[in-house]
Amino acid sequence: MDLRKVLNQLEHYQSEKPNRVFTMYLNTDLADQDQQGGEWKIHLKNGLNNFENYLQEDGDSDEKRNFWAVKEKVENFMEEHQKELKKSVIIFATGEGDIWFADTLQMPVQTEFYWEDTPVLDQLKSLNEQFPKTGIVLTQKDHIKLIDAELGSVKDTMLYELDLNTEDWKQHVGPHHADSNLGSGGAKSAKKDEIADRFEENRSRWYKSIAPKIDKLAKQNDWAEIHLIGRSDEIDELEKNMNKPIENKVNKNLLDHEETKVLEEVM
Fold this sequence. Notes:
Layout: H1 3-11, E1 21-27, H2 40-58, H3 61-81, E2 88-94, E3 100-105, E4 112-116, H4 122-130, E5 134-140, E6 143-150, E7 153-163, E8 168-172, H5 185-220, E9 225-229, H6 232-241, E10 248-250, H7 259-266
Parallel strand pairs: 5-9, 9-10
Antiparallel strand pairs: 1-2, 1-4, 2-3, 5-6, 6-7, 7-8
């Protein structure tokens, strides 16, 4: 999801009867005391039925058909995703299908349903202001991980590893095992110490070489905020060589932690 493009499309969308826009903000947060028994299912059913009952009384057959098409899409989406629900679901849809946006989010919302000529964007805009597109950069000596996040959810993760032979940063593919090629026992310990010493001697130059790549990725991903996490000397060195402003720095080693946990730490 590119939220900026979604918002731009929805902000400029205008319809009229019988092709109206369905807006849904649904609280599915199981940590919420009001959601312990899956009450979202009741709220969803009631919300959809209220519109259906109103349209039955109104008698506009074209509008009813449009709403039924939306209702079927919404129910199918919720059924397909009910095992992977997070804290909320947001849906915008039209019966003609020219608008369809549906996503499960890690951010809480207040349950609301609308059937109007335009999408109701208040909560989505508020979430975008609170949790803008974010880049998280984690350092651990010759490893740097980048997390691309939006609305409190991880969109993508990239890991870069310094090739000590060529002194080039290369994108790492597959599981991360920082010490997998160091041998074993005393040889492993000696090799690790040697790499650590070499890294401290060359850290400034090596971080200077990857900083432009991070700046470029920040621009490509449209990060409104950048957070640096790692040893203070490492993240200070990286910040010094980057052109993009840094929102926050966290002096912790979290590179091997699960990405959603890292995001929770930042937020």
